[in-house]
Amino acid sequence: MKMNELEQRTGVGRETIRFYIREGLLPEPQRRARNVAVYSDIHVQRLRMIRRLKEERFLPLDIIRRILRGDPTALPATADPFGELAPLLAARLGVGVDEPPVELQTLIAADAQAAQDVRDMCDLGTISVRDQDGTSVVSRLDARIIALWRDIRRAGYDPGAFPVEYIKLYMDALRPMATEEVARFFAGFEGRIDQGDAAEKAQAGVEIINALIAALRTRFLLEEVAQRTLKPSAPPSPAS
By C-alpha distance, which of 81, 79, 86, 93 is closest to 45? Predict the structure, then answer.
């Protein structure tokens, strides 16, 4: 997008935007020509966060700069002790607002089935595709989901046996689980630890529980396979 659109979408003037770039609060735009600067959704997201931190939290720019760089010690105590936990955790998990989006074409190149799967996943609400300067892009996390499902197809799981709608099984199981986990986390730690410690603890929890879920699923799958393949034992031979 050009500067005019960036101003309209964020409500921030061009001189302020240029100042933020000079101060390291915003990344440099792409330069397609000497006098043509192209901005992305990352600029929109950052500008909105900067405005929120300034207008709602009244934070100075040096503190905001540290927050945008993922420094948890920069966050002052507030009435909402976990107010910025979501972006901090996302940054630690490698899916924060600073992570550049992925061009969709790189994920589905010349693969008609992958393209159809992406459309189906959008319809299910599994992923979200957006336009960035005329190019279809997805977030880093959605790119990971697309790549994993593409791996399923390459492993031989065809659409007839495993349609994309199968993903809804996982969505329906995991969403209420995530709701419960977050509720328990906030109940256990909000107000007791600061956001830096909370982000670190939450990251560890996400990674460990992800591994635990995988291990439990493997156990249950093996048990199910064993049940289906268990052959009844032969009756004992009659006594001679």
Answer: 86
Domain 3-69 has CATH 1.10.1660.10: yes
The whole-number pLDDT of residue 221 equals 95
Give the mean model confidence (pLDDT) for residues 51-68: 80
Axis crossing angle, helix 14-22 with helix 41-55, rounded to the nearest 10: 90
Sheet of strand 130-132: strand arrangement: 102-103, 135-138, 130-132
Residue 103 to residues 51, 143, 216, Cα–Cα distance (Å): 28, 9, 34
Average pLDDT, the chain: 86
In the chain, % of residues over pLDDT 70: 90
Global pTM? Answer: 0.65
CB 75 within 8 A of CB 69: no
**Residue for token pair 């996302």:** 90
Give the domain ranges of the chain.
3-69, 102-227
